[in-house]
Automatic annotation (TrEMBL):
SUPFAM superfamilies: Acyl-CoA N-acyltransferases (Nat) (SSF55729). It comes from the Eukaryota. The keyword DNA-binding does not apply. It comes from Serpula lacrymans var. lacrymans (strain S7.9) (Dry rot fungus). GO terms for cellular component: NatC complex. Keywords: Acyltransferase, Transferase. One of its GO terms (molecular function) is protein-N-terminal amino-acid acetyltransferase activity. Residues 1-137 form the N-acetyltransferase domain. This is NAT3/MAK3 N-acetyltransferase. Transmembrane segments: none annotated.
Length: 168
């Protein structure tokens, strides 16, 4: 929780984390450096029906420790989350980010997200946001079965070496 509190612009209460982790534990991931138990990145997502028509994924939070940025951690977390949501048959993934967060916009746009709309005074700090959307092509597989999903851990581990990667 410290990682998210220190790195995100919005203040979240423990109930927000619990909401996502209890409802969609299979869509939350932590990244750890090889051989360490201290997380360096986190992504928290959800999946639900949008307007009772489309199966939509949502990236609620993405945070990477400042010392680990520009090493591919964020893009790996996002790609992994999208792949899991794709296996669960989402048709799109959406998120919001501050309109002036150039690093986040660059990351998401490099992964295929497009700006859908600008949301006026979306954040508590009064800043506008862009809603970004990624259209997800159908998966060739049948998706994860429910039993497999329920047996998965609440938080998954993605390992990273300390080598520098300028992807994000």
């Amino acid at each position: 929780m410290t990682l998210v509190q220190n790195e995100l612009s919005e203040p979240y209460v423990i109930y927000t984390y619990r909401y996502f982790l209890h409802q969609w534990p299979e869509l939350s991931f932590l990244a750890y450096p090889a051989g360490s138990s201290d997380p360096i990145g986190v992504i928290v997502c959800k999946q639900s029906m949008h307007k009772h028509v489309s199966n939509r994924g949502y990236i609620a939070m993405l945070s990477v420790n400042k010392n680990w940025r520009k090493r591919g951690v964020a893009s790996s977390l996002v790609r992994h989350s999208i792949e899991v949501m794709k296996q669960r048959n989402v048709v799109e993934v959406v998120l919001e980010t501050e309109y002036d967060n150039a690093a986040a916009l660059s990351l998401y746009e490099s992964l295929g997200f497009i700006r859908e709309k600008r949301l006026h005074r979306f954040y508590l700090n009064g800043k506008d946001a862009f809603r970004l959307v990624l259209s997800v092509p159908p998966s060739s597989g049948q998706g994860l079965n429910q039993e497999t999903s329920l047996k998965q851990n609440y938080l998954r581990r993605l390992s990273y070496s300390s080598s520098v990667d300028d992807d994000d």
